[in-house]
Structure formats: C-alpha cells, structure tokens
Specification:
heterodimer; A: 425 residues; alpha+beta; Alpha-Beta Plaits; DNA polymerase, domain 1; Dna Ligase, domain 1; 5-stranded mixed sheet; 15 helices; 15 strands; B: 373 residues; 9-stranded antiparallel sheet; 16% helix
Amino acid sequence: MNTEPKTDQPTFCRDCLTDIQESSSSCPNCASPRLISHDEIHDLNIAHIDCDAFYASIEKRDNPELNTRPLIVGGGKRGVVSTCCYIARTFGVKSAMPMFKANKLCPNAIVIPPNMKKYSDVSKEVREIFDALTPIVEPISIDEAFLDLSGTRKLHGMSAAKILCMTAKKIEREIGITVSIGLSYNKFLAKLASDMNKPNGFSIIGRSEAQKFLATQPISKIWGVGKVLNSKMNRAGITQIGQLQKMELRKLVKDYGVMGDRLYYFSRGEDSRVVTPQNKAKSVSNEITLEQDISDYNILKQNLWRLCEKLSSRLKEKHLSAKTVTLKLKTSNFRTVSRAVTLDGYTQMAEILYDQGIRLLKPECNGLEYRLIGIGVSNFSDDQFSDLPDLIDRSKENKIKAEKAMDKIRGKFGAGIINKGRNFT
Amino acid sequence: MKLNIERGALLKSLGHIQSVVERRNTIPILSNVLLEGEDGRLNLAATDLDIAIGETVAVETEEAGGITAPAHTLYDIVRKLPEGSQVELYYDVDSGRLTISAGRSRFTLACLPREDFPIMSEGELPVSFKVTGVNLKRLIDKTRFAVSTEETRYYLNGIYLHAASDDNGEAVLRGVATDGHRLARFDVDQPDGAADMPGIIVPRKAVGELRKLIDEYEGDVEVSLSDTKIRFSFADIVLTSKLIDGTFPDYSRVIPEGNDKNMEVDSKILAEAVDRVSTISTDKTRSVKLAMQAGQLNLSVNSPEHGTAREELSVSYESEEMEIGFNSRYLLDILAQIEGDVVQVSFADAAAPTILKDLTDEGALYVLMPMRV
C-alpha cells in the first residue's frame, strides 16, 4: 500500500522518476506531488494495468465537449451500461447496470452507443506499448492486462515500478487515455492494487503487508467469488478475507470444493498462477437483450437461431470448433440460468449449435419470462476435428453438407445472399 | 444396534458401497449408507436412486438394529483406523448417534433413520442367467471405452446388451457401444436362459461400478433382468440398476460390409508406433495419417506448431495404395483391446468407416470413423 513518503523507504516521483532521498511532500526536481514510496518498490514485478473508463475516455478524447458532462457508453432502452465516465459514476451509475436504471440515476447523462471497432483499435495501440515492455503480457479483456516484468531491469535500465510509471505517462501522452496500475508479486494482488487508486493510479502491495491488507477486505475481492458464492459464504458468517486466513485448507475444500483451495491460498496472499502470454479464447458466446421480456418458446427459438448463426460464423472465421455448448438465459427478475451440454465431437455448425441450444431451451420455457438469451461454446479444437461424420446420426451429415454449401455461396456472393426459411418467420 | 467387526472386512464392504454414493447430494439420505445388524450379519446398502448396492458381511451382533450414517465419512474413518483393529459400531437410540470405536479412537456420527432410506423396487425380473466373471469383465472392457458421454444422446450412454447370433450362427450374448465416432461390438458364449432377454442399455455408471466390484472375482455372476431393471448378484454383493429407457440404434447398419483392402499388423507394434508419432502434437485430440502400400505402412503426424513425425512399419498389405486419417486416441483405445498378436484392419476408402478385428477372437469387432488429414 502507498504510504506517506518516509526517509527510510525508497521513494521516487511518478512524473519525472527522480529518486528522492529526504522526506518531502513534493518532488524537489519537478515539484510534482505524485510521489510513490514502498519498501519493496523496486523488487515487485507483476503488474495489472487497467484503462480508466476505457470506452468513455476514448469518446471524451475524440470529442472534448463531452469532457465536463456525465457520459454513458451503452445501448438502447433495454441495453446495459458498457462503460460510464467518472462524472457519471458520482451519480451512482455503474457498468453492466441496465440502461433504464442509469437514466433514472443520471438523467442528464449523454448516452453514446458503443463503437467497438474504434475501441478495439485503441486497445491494439495500448497492447503494442505493453508488448514493448515485456514478452509476457496476458490481456484479460479489451482494456486490461497482466504484465510480468521479471528480468527486464537490465533491458529498461530501471525497475519495473519506474518503467510502469513511464508507460502510464506514455499512454496518456500518445493515446490520450489514462490507466491505473497495480504492482505486486502475484496476479491476484496486482489486480487488487490496480483497483485501489483509480483513475490514473499507481498502487503497490508488497509481501510484508499483503496478509494484513487482505484481512480487512471483503471476500468478494477474491477472484472467483461472485454473487452466489459471496452470499453462500455470508450465510456461513464469512464476510472478510481475514476470517479465511484463520481457516484450515481441508475445511475450505470440504465446504467450497475447488474454490476452497483458492480461498485458502488467495486469502494468504498466495497465488501461483503465472502470467501466460497466450491469449487464446476459452469460450466464445453471443447474447442479446430482448426488446421486451419473452416467455414464448417459438420467439426465443428464433432469437436463438440468429445467435447460433452469428456464433457459428465467428467460429468458422477463427477456424475453431467446440465441444461444449452453453445456453444462457436471464429472467425478467435478473436471475441468470445457464445450461450446458458436452458433445462427443467438436462442432462449428450453426445447425448443430441450434439443435443443442433448443434442447437446452425447451425445458426452461415453463412460463418464466426472459429478458436475455445467449449461446456460447467452450472446450475448443481447431476445425480439423469439427463436424466429423457420425456413424449413428446420418441426418447430421446432410445438415452439415447443406450448411457448408450455403457458406460457399455466401463466400462468393455475400452474407445475405442465402438464408434458411426460419430466418424469415 | 451394537456389533463388532474386524476393520479390514468392514473397510472392504464400505469401499464397495460408498463408491455408488454421489459426492454431492441434494437429498441428504442419499449420502448415507444403510447399516442393519442381525443374526451375525451386517447388511450394508447405498443408492443414488438409479443404482442400488447391497452387501452382507459377517459380524458379531450384540444387539440387532439398523440406522443410516454418512457413507463417505464412515468410510474415511474406518480407512484411517489401525490395521487389524476390532471396530465396534453402536447406535444409541436415545442420543440418535452412531458411535464407532476402535482401540483408543472413538467417533460419533449424526444419523438418519433407516425408515427414510429409499429402497429401489426391482419389480419382476423374468429373465435370469449366469455368466462367468471373466466373460462379464471382457464384455465390459472391450466395449465401454466407446460409450457416448453426450447427454442429449442418452440412448448411447451405456452398453447395449442383447442376445444375438454371430456370423457362424452361434448364439451369443452381445455387448455394443458407440459414440458415433467409433463402435465396439463384443460377443461371449450365450448363457442358458439369456436367449429370451430383451435388448437392454446398461448405463455407464452402473457398468463402471460393476466393473470395479468384479475386478478380482472369477466366479459366476447371476444376472436377472426385466426391460427396466437389471440385477447382478455375486459373492455377498447385489447391484441393481435402472436401465436406460430408450432405443439403441440399429448398429448392424453401421458396420460396413464391402471393406476389401485388408492390412494385418502386430497390434502391439502398431499401438506403440501410433503412440510415438502422436507425441509431436500437444493438443488433446490428434490425427494420425496411415499411408499403405504393398507390405508397408507409413504413419505420420503433422502439427503446424510443433513439427512432424513419421514411422515406417512392415505390414501384410496387398491392395492398392491408399491414405486415411484417424483420431489417434480412438485408434489406440481400440488397439488396447486387441488381445491377440495380430489386428486385421479393413478399409474401403479414405472417407468410409474402417473395421478392426482381433484375429484370435472372432467375438470382437470395432468400427472406426476416419477423419480428414
């Protein structure tokens, strides 16, 4: 954690990187008050970098008139907030909040529909800057990444902490957005740190204080503790990470299965996950928030078909096939239902995804109204293994042949040239 | 209930019983084992509502009675007691707890009443026959690797057992399993009384439990069945399972008849070579290419990221040159079940199902779907 600069702790200026020897509240070189000091500052190498209000910051950068206004990037009456700027956040608006709720909290907000192409381009620029720092960059979403800077001191001629400060300034100068950086000795703590001092922050969690710091944090800070597990643990009387620090591994594993292991080690500031530069997707999914709540199986089915077509064309584009199909539904009262099936073989075909999807959907159409439907796949292989002929189900082979023929025609004459009858109902 | 039993005997029985009990249960009593002591015998039972298992073991009974206790916990306790120790099981009606004592160790467990324990009704089991443990084991081993795990094709989630006659017209008891990518068919001599059995699908979990239980058993297993249930009795164990309520597809349609390009090769040598060349790819699924020409088989694996592997084998093959690709894991699964020295592989073309046969065992036949390479 960042403390007031003390003389006995290594300290430097975040703006001009000057090392500061005496106790001071501002930099003697550039007069910046942004000093950072920590005993382990030059010994920590795992960083989590998170772009501040990414979509909103980009929109503000491109239209400075928006700078002083609350801004929400998100969509439609029934959509959700993708990102909101820090001004909008002061009104209580949060990401993933339904639009109507956000409008109520902050009626003056300017709402811009997301321009994903633009954000993904900016994300690539940011990524290039990261890649110049270390080969070990693990992007976890469009706007955040883990970096392992171990062994780069010689290359950069400075510690990880300093080069990260330089990088933050560089991103601000060259790309025009700000980032928050967390620096620690593992991924879990680095991520916690980056969240501590947003926006434009730089926070450190060292080995010596990790346990003490964690003790007072809520358990929801542990990666993997979502709403459901959180309330389950709350019912068992566990709310703070400190309580987990006193519990035995066996007990935690018994009560919480594989998560128990993570709860035990993370609560003690131990996280053995390494920063892995591979960025292969683990799952691909498409979902849609419906214009109105729907309980009718046939209407849901139509939406599902369109989603399957989209998902399938993404898989084909990426030369992927998958074995596990997951249907996601959100009820009108925001409860999420997900149902999955694992197939014997890999598929990338819209028809097969749809077949499995409706099998999962049918039993859920029991009068409940849904506001969102989605379909996703995981458990990938390349397309060499996709949709192999089946000994038993010959009808599958014909469906696959028909779809492949349609894909060929689309490839020649454009995506809209041929469609299934069910697209028109 | 109060009884004494040697730890080893209790552990063995509990080991059999607890395996059926699911780790996570929404119905509490399904986590429990039923214990009933009477007349020098302890009856143990457990169920997951699809499978029920019961076993009887000799004990010294001081006081007859019965109770249910958490199966996994009880098993873990007994497992950790010192070898050779005498275990006392005592259910005290007043406290409602089961006490387990051995030497200086003492445990008390919360219990649920025996009356709440669900007993699976077997109904009438009109067909019954005896099959040797050895044959039953082979029937399972040689087919179960091909059982489908895809839940939406539930009718493939087990081994299809039925009475049939083989190519020579002999009456056989036949097991068939498939997941659409490969099919395994295995015959054993038809036992007396099996001729009239209906075709049944024994679910994967029951097959797995049965296989564990008969692992060291050589004697006869008594099989009784209807079209909804099957019961296996042997030694002091009775395993009853529901059958899969579905129609197994007509597998004979799937077995090709005109495959005329035959290759014969030492199955162990082929398996080792396939295993070696597939090392090159770290992916979960790998394809291996087989290229045949007169007297020779070339195996190869190409992995865009990792490189290539090749191996040449001498085989008996006289037909025209051809190439075909398989999922190497599927091929190895089948080769592992070939007991004889020589496997006969019969091809039609690169896109058609291939047949593999154990030349020393006419009862065994496997079909493997090729893939693009």
